[in-house]
Amino acid sequence: MKAMILAAGRGERLRPITDTIPKPLVKVGDKALLVWHIEKLKKANITDIIINSAYLSEKIVDFIGDGSAFGVHVTHSVEGSQGLETAGGIIKALPFFENEDFLVVNGDTFIDADYSQFLEPLTEKDLGRLYLVKNPAHNLKGDFSIDNGLCRRGGNYTFSGVAQYKCKAFENRHAERLPLLPLFLEWCSKGGLKGAALLGNWFDVGTIERLDNVNAYIKEHKL
Fold first, then answer.
1. I need a labelling partner for 214 at 20 to 30 A (CA). Which of 23, 37, 169, 179 fits?
2. Where are the domains of the chain?
């Protein structure tokens, strides 16, 4: 399976750190967020990775290169300075997946977990599977619920930013600025979106306070 790391975000709430570096290159512990993801994907035997970028994209391209320094193969999908949002970025990268199911991970998260849990095959009728976490303090209202394995709009869980998709889920869509939520709701209405609880500890690194929380967790657990 191939994977995509979403790395096009601006990171406004992490300023001034992100004034000079893109959010996915922010360090947690002794590594950039992107490197944590790459290493965990490699450990799960995923070595073909595409990374999208927009804001300060040249820094991501220069730092990661072709991925050989990390033991993987990296392709870069560079968007315009404004980016294409999540769904738009995925659609632009679709040819990379060669019509095979693929994994997507948000580059601005930190996940202390075994990424092999994200590789359970989808069935032919599925359009995707979202991996969900218990609602964090910054999103107590939640995003979704799980009903007999299907993802429904609800308040029990928060979307982790990790998901597996079928290429056909994005058929007849154009690579333009487009968020994922409208597609999720469409797929839910068709009964084609699975939901699964993420096994492990998940952090959204969206603010200075949350960045400090991740660094404290890494230090405490000696990661």
1. 179
2. 2-220
CA distance 180 to 183: 5
CATH number, domain 2-220, options 3.40.50.80, 3.60.20.10, 3.90.550.10, 3.40.50.10490: 3.90.550.10
Which CA distances in Å does 2 have to 27, 46, 69, 124, 216? Answer: 25, 6, 18, 18, 32
Give the residue ranges of DSSP H helices in 44-103: 57-64, 85-93
> What token pair was written down for 178?
């487009």
Euclidean distance between CA atoms 53 and 207, whole angstroms: 20
Residue-wise pLDDT for 98-154, tens only, equals: 999 999 999 999 999 999 999 999 999 999 999 999 999 999 999 999 999 999 999
Angle at 45 between CA 74 and CA 102, to 5 degrees: 65
Angle at 195 between CA 181 and CA 4, to 5 degrees: 65
CA distance 117 to 112: 12
